[in-house]
Amino acid sequence: MAQFTCNVCGDGFDQKSRFERHMATSHPERAPSAADVEKALSGIQYPKTREELVRYASQQVSDKDLMDIINSLPSRVYRDSAEVAIALGEVKQRQGVRSAEEVAKTEAPSTKGGRAAATSSVSAATIAKVLSGTDFPKNKGELRDYAQKHMTEVEVADPQAIMGILDKLPDREYQDMADVEKSVGQVL
């Protein structure tokens, strides 16, 4: 019987170093996402300063990593959750979080990684940037229409890829940006 057993997949290891490598590569810890931040801030009335966002989130969540990322948002006034998601993308970029495109250049893609690499210019943050300022609820068609009109106002690397992702979203009504980002994550 193996001395170290993975509690996620059940694989067993005789050496601690191999077990630790398995955990780091097969089941890495998930960093807080824009959807996690959106959920922590659900119910907040915008516009809000970063300090107000931090104060509100601290009453909603106890996750230290999530609070750290909210604390690291740039100090400014946020008009809506899309602006928060865009700022989160900026923070992750400053912190050196690699994009799917950067990972694809250096690592063999997994099944999900292959899909992400194929749409490397599209991320939840990019979608949030394009949909910034939209009022919810919106159905898929309304999101597409808004993105198409708003795309000329924001700089994005691949507008066609963004529209392609929006086309792949389930045809339903979306309640907020977190709802959209969750569906985008399933499509990517």
From TrEMBL:
<dbReference type="InterPro" id="IPR036236">
    <property type="entry name" value="Znf_C2H2_sf"/>
</dbReference>
<feature type="domain" description="C2H2-type">
    <location>
        <begin position="4"/>
        <end position="32"/>
    </location>
</feature>
<protein>
    <recommendedName>
        <fullName>C2H2-type domain-containing protein</fullName>
    </recommendedName>
</protein>
<dbReference type="InterPro" id="IPR021527">
    <property type="entry name" value="DUF2795"/>
</dbReference>
<dbReference type="Pfam" id="PF11387">
    <property type="entry name" value="DUF2795"/>
</dbReference>
<dbReference type="InterPro" id="IPR013087">
    <property type="entry name" value="Znf_C2H2_type"/>
</dbReference>
